[in-house]
Amino acid sequence: MSTSQVKLIASRGHHGQRITCTAHNPLFPAYTLSDSALLNVTYPPIATMELGRGVTSTVKEGEDVYFNCNVDANPSTYKISWSKEENPILHSPDDGILLSGNSLALRGVTRHQAGPYVCSASNVEGDAHSPPLNLSVNYSPVCYESPAASRVYATGLGQVINVSCEVMSAPRTVRYSWVFNNSITSHRLPGDQVFETPDGGSVVQFVARTHQDYGTLQCWAQNTVGRMTQPCLFHVVPAGRPEHPVSCSVVNKTYDSLAVSCQPGFDGGLSQLFVAKVFEAVSGKGEVSVTSQHPRFTLEGLTPGLDYVIKVMATNALGTSDPVKLDAFTYKMAENRMHDDEIHFEVRTINLDSHREEITRIADEAM
């Protein structure tokens, strides 16, 4: 009897292969004996992603997208999950998200669903994540949804204003056109009033020459996907005098100064300044007037211990707002109660020996 052994470091590539041992005797070459074993190697998953047949990684908004998660694992996986930018994707047919087995379907994909997708697989040996597959979604232009964007332009007759328009789109290359519209007319603005900006936006120079020139400017943009469905709207209204400042209050006071803070109101469509005037409450005499670019003032040089009325206004080229009135007072100056009398100090020398008994008594009482 003879024995042979072989040591094998198992890898996932050995799974499903058969290892065979064959014995032969050179004296009897026609007679051999063989035995074999089928290798069952367990290992954690390896996951890769691919798009469904006929689908590319760049699609148009509104199209359907299919992902397949290919997994190599032994034993079989017990869970397949999906995520986008580390946010889990859950089955939601009402939102057009369908999960089935190793597949993910997105019905009517939107621009918000663009980004890197990852599938994850788990079995008893461990977990695995696929390399991200980036999905690009091309869409026709849409307006920026920025609350800070100015949508109303107030202007006077003959004043030139520059109205800027910038849109989101993929691809980014777009063509712009502008339309003016009001209750009397609607027409496309000529090309010599429209200019492109270096960042891909558009600016129109607009002048209201008569009162019929006030209305709405419509900014339209188009790329290779299509034309935007809703234009960006900018309302051109007549300029006027500013509104008065709001939330005014006296925030600090001393014996000779008052500090006032407000929030600006609507500027009437023109650049505005702010004015604060101080009057003595009893006599009505004006004492201080301060002008500032911001509605915050420090009113100095006032008389201590008086009541005052403060009027705060906004002003632009077309007029001045109604005043905001504040009541305030300055502190009285602290009185100097120091007397001019001389203060005399008397220094006396005492003999400790003559007071020793009294000192000892006081010390004992303190103990």
Task: Tell me about this structure.
- The chain has four domains: 1-41, no CATH class; 45-140, Immunoglobulins (Immunoglobulin-like); 144-238, Immunoglobulin-like (Sandwich); 246-329, Immunoglobulins (Immunoglobulin-like), CATH 2.60.40.
- The chain is 3% helix and 50% strand.
- The protein is built from one helix and 29 strands.
- The chain has one helix at residues 356-366, and strands spanning 18-25, 28-38, 43-51, 58-60, 65-74, 79-84, 87-88, 97-100, 103-106, 115-123, 126-129, 133-143, 152-155, 160-165, 167-170, 175-181, 186-188, 194-196, 202-207, 215-222, 232-238, 246-253, 257-263, 273-280, 286-292, 296-300, 307-316, 319-320, 324-329.
- A hairpin with a 2-residue loop joins strand 10 and strand 11.
Structure summary:
The chain has 367 residues and is an all-beta fold. It has one helix spanning 356-366, and strands at residues 18-25, 28-38, 43-51, 58-60, 65-74, 79-84, 87-88, 97-100, 103-106, 115-123, 126-129, 133-143, 152-155, 160-165, 167-170, 175-181, 186-188, 194-196, 202-207, 215-222, 232-238, 246-253, 257-263, 273-280, 286-292, 296-300, 307-316, 319-320, 324-329. The chain has four domains: 1-41, no CATH class; 45-140, Sandwich (Immunoglobulin-like), CATH 2.60.40.10; 144-238, Immunoglobulins (Immunoglobulin-like); 246-329, Sandwich (Immunoglobulin-like), CATH 2.60.40.10.
